[in-house]
Amino acid sequence: MTTEIHTPTAVESGSSATEAFRKSLARHGTADTDRERIDTFARDVLGRIHDAIRAHNMTYPEYQAVKQWLIDVGESKEWPLFLDVFVEHVVEDVASQDHHGTKGSIEGPYYLPDQVMLPAKATLPMRQEEKGTPLVFSGQVRTLEGTPIPGAELDIWQADADGYYSGFASTIPDGNLRGVVVADGDGRFEITTVQPAPYEIPKDGPTGKLIAAAGWHAWRPAHLHLMVRAPGHRTVTTQLYFRGGQWLDSDIAQATKPELVLDPQPDADGVL
Ligand code: DHB
Ligand code: FE
Fold first, then answer.
1. How many CB atoms lie within 10 A of CB 37?
2. Which first-to-last residue range defines the signal peptide (predicted)?
3. What does pTM read for this prediction?
């Protein structure tokens, strides 16, 4: 028998992310396919690829390498990882240009719906031996005019102190560090959790191979994911970061915004 420390693999995260994405499409549906818009957009994207090939004199062996890599991304089911890391931030930017209030950020590939509902003052589900610095995150959900929103839902998900997400790593129990907190009659909440670690794109899959081959780093700064919902209000999907956190200025997903950086202060017991 061999014993080895099991770390989640790209295939594991990728295939779970692809399945989660398919389920969310089945729930929410796809966009209308307007022929003219597809024609314009597809032409533009292809034209820009042609331009890049010409500008950099792409060779046949390079073309074959790219073809192989694209096949690999699909076979490892890594498209959600790849797209959410390298593309989603621009889609979010365009979508939120007329929005006011709390800034949004990318949803990423690791959201899972239907998590446990929790009261306004709650501790996220975690293992008995959950590693990491305890963290208390409190606040109030308000309208743009400042009126509290009673019963607003804060759907929260995060990586653990090793940088892995439940539902995408077989070593972590389902639902770990995920929950839907229901704000009180004053829109307030107080969530106890642990500080997440920075997240590194799995290195053993094609996305990781591209990153290594290009000499980039594969890190996102530590973050909490939030989706805040209330009937009659636009849902805010965002992320919260930590002041001084590593990779804050070089997030591979380019999804940080200065307004989203928290500065938690330790209490007498060292709880942030
Ligand atoms: C990815 C992972 C994340 O945790 C995140 O917030 C955004 C993107 C990714 O691997 O694609
Ligand atoms: Fe994340």
1. 11
2. none
3. 0.94
